[in-house]
């Protein structure tokens, strides 16, 4: 929150990179969670059907949603959030098999869950719905319905929900159920952590993707007193824009850092953002950096 983009959310960043990369490279191939083919030995479908979307439009919408929901990694911590993803994935496999069996017994033999990380997107959506308060009680009213700062993410989620009709709706429902199970802490599920060797493997995968796709290439900024060497990728452009806005020309046409002294944030704003799980110092820093804009501060 006190940082820009994916700061303090490396797992989310790595997962989004994996989703976009896999959707681009194998999304056009049949990677569906086809239970008959899985039982015939195509076990790779268990993994890839939960990572790659079948088209880039879904991948972009899903990635934007995951980016917004990165606040839960910051709140849980890296290890707990990593365990949450793995637990959600394993639960999704079990629940999808059960759904296929039940739906097939009702005479609907053509049901195949949509490919993509619906399990993590909609499980996090449940947590978002249940625990993230509206930062403003009302932004806009349409036909008597209040539209808040949370509404736009639900619009994106509806697009994913309906993208493949019944198949995507089933995948979304399973993800929502996983979020409910985790939130209710059934059999102490929230206390589960990944074994050390699993953390090491995931760290190697993340570092490989990170080094492959992100490069520190912000040129000619160090001479102006701006830190360089940050990765240029999703989120890093916002770093560049912030540094650009911090610089302004003086009378000698040389660029110097602008001076800005924001008003101290109110206790109500601090309390609202602290309810999201952030500490007081981080909340104050984020509010000061965004001119006390609750929406912008919560999304940092």
UniProtKB/TrEMBL annotation:
SMART domains: UBA. One of its GO terms (molecular function) is serine-type endopeptidase activity. Residues 264-300 form the UBA domain. Keywords: Membrane, Transmembrane, Transmembrane helix. InterPro entries: Rhomboid-like_sf, UBA, UBA-like_sf. It is found in: Membrane. One of its GO terms (cellular component) is membrane. This is UBA domain-containing protein. It comes from Chromulina nebulosa. The lineage of its organism: Eukaryota, Sar, Stramenopiles, Ochrophyta, Chrysophyceae.
């Amino acid at each position: 929150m006190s940082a820009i983009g994916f700061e303090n959310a490396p797992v989310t960043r790595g997962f989004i990179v994996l989703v976009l990369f896999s959707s681009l490279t194998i999304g056009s191939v049949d990677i569906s969670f086809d239970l008959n083919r899985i039982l015939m030995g195509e076990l790779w479908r268990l993994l890839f059907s939960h990572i790659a979307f079948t088209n880039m439009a879904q991948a972009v919408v899903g990635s934007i949603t995951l980016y917004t929901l990165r606040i839960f990694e910051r709140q849980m911590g890296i290890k707990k959030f990593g365990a949450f993803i793995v637990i959600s994935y394993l639960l999704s496999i079990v629940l999808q098999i059960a759904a296929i069996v039940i739906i097939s017994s009702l005479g609907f033999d053509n049901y195949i869950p949509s490919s993509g990380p619906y399990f993590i997107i909609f499980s996090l959506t449940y947590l978002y719905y249940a625990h993230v308060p509206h930062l403003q009680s009302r932004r806009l009213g349409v036909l008597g319905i209040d539209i808040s700062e949370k509404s736009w993410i639900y619009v994106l989620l509806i697009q994913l929900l309906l993208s493949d009709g019944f198949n995507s709706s089933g995948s979304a429902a399973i993800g929502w159920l996983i979020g409910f199970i985790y939130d209710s802490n059934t059999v102490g599920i929230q206390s589960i952590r990944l074994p050390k060797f699993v953390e090491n493997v995931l760290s190697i995968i993340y570092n490989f993707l990170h080094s492959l796709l992100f490069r520190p290439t912000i040129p000619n900024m160090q001479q102006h007193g701006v830190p360089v060497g940050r990765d240029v990728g999703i989120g890093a452009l916002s770093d560049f824009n912030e540094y650009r806005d911090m610089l302004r020309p003086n009378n000698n046409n040389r660029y110097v850092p602008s001076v800005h002294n924001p008003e101290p944030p109110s206790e109500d704003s601090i309390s609202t953002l602290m309810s999201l799980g952030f500490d007081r110092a981080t909340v104050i820093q984020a509010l000061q950096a965004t001119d006390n804009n609750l929406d912008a501060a919560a999304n940092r």
